[in-house]
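Pipeline run #58 for the internal structure catalog. This entry was flagged by the ingest filter as a single-chain record with no existing model, so it goes straight to prediction. Upstream metadata was stripped on purpose; only the residue string is passed forward. Reviewer on rotation: M.T. Logging verbosity set to normal.
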Amino acid sequence: MTSQQRGIGRISRRSKRRDERGSVAIEAAIGVPAFGLFIAMIILGGRVEIAKQSVEAAAFEAARSASIERTQGEAITAGRSAAADSLSDQGLQCTTTSVTVNAGGFNAPLGTTAQVTATVTCHVNLSDLAIPGLPGTRTITATASSPIDAYRERR
């Protein structure tokens, strides 16, 4: 190899290095927001799943509390109170909450099986995540039933 050929190789290697200048900044400008969006989606999924579990637990608490009462009116009051307490204890902050307790089973005659059904609906605020295209709230609903003792006195 002559000295002239070696010189040409050096120039071409230097020009290749110069062509890649700034590529890291461009990759970072594209990659960092995409990674941030990915992390936000993971947080969103976690928050929604935790909220679902909390609402389901509140519905089960409401149904169970209502089923051990003696009257239909007391059952409805106890169910609503238990659901509110459960959501509060779990730290779930709903923008609006709806608790419906169906205590019609208290009208069944003694010796017949009956149940109480509770439905809890919670609107969870997601606007603080600031993900484009994401609605500000998500509605989560859960329903649970609990049997009423067939031979327990009802009023």
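catalog note: The beta strands are 94-102, 114-125, 137-148.
catalog note: The longest strand covers residues 114-125.
status: ready for reviewer M.T.
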